[in-house]
Amino acid sequence: MNKFLFILALLTLFISGDCFAEPLIPLIEVFVSQPLDIHSSDNPNVKIYDIKDADRLLDEINNTIHLASASEAEEIAKHFILSHQQVLMNDYYGEMLANQYNLTAYPAIVFDHGRTIFYGKTNIDNLLQKYQGGFR
Question: Exposed, middle or buried, 108 (CB in 10 Å: 0-12/13-18/19+)?
Fold first, then answer.
């Protein structure tokens, strides 16, 4: 049965032409704790998480509503959260992933859902070459 599945998978690769395609670019997740200049070509598989951005945004709103009345503060907070909802969700998702990968320092560049982690580097193109060259 396993032999049959293997042959079927090979035939599927040959028929689809995927065996002749460029090597797949893995998912690359970049975790930073401050805005950094990340060096990467326009790679659609790169996802950047600023894990401290949500804290900075919340500090900003707290400083803004600190002097407002209760009703004004509620209105300002609603508007702020609605206008930054996607950023906040992305940042908190990044924090969750950083905990899942047990990251110990930032910046951290993670390949293939935690299989390989590079710390302290920001040139994704160089790290991708190393990763694809067998440094795992």
Answer: buried
Give SS3 for 61: helix
Distance CA 117, CA 28 (A): 10
39 three-class SS: strand
DSSP string, 73-93: HHHHHHHHHHHTHHHHHHHHH
Confidence bin at 98 (pLDDT 50/70/90): very high
Cβ atoms of residues 123 and 37 within 8 Å: no
Residue of 37, 43, 28 lying closest to 97 (CA atoms): 28
Instruction: Give 130's contacts (C-beta < 8 A, 6+ positions apart).
Output: none
Upstream peptide bond of 107 is cis (omega within 30 degrees of 0): yes
Could you give the CA distance from residue 39 to residue 63 in angstroms, rounded to a whole number? 33
Q: Give 5-52 pLDDT, tens digit per residue.
A: 555 554 455 555 444 444 567 889 999 987 767 766 677 788 889 888
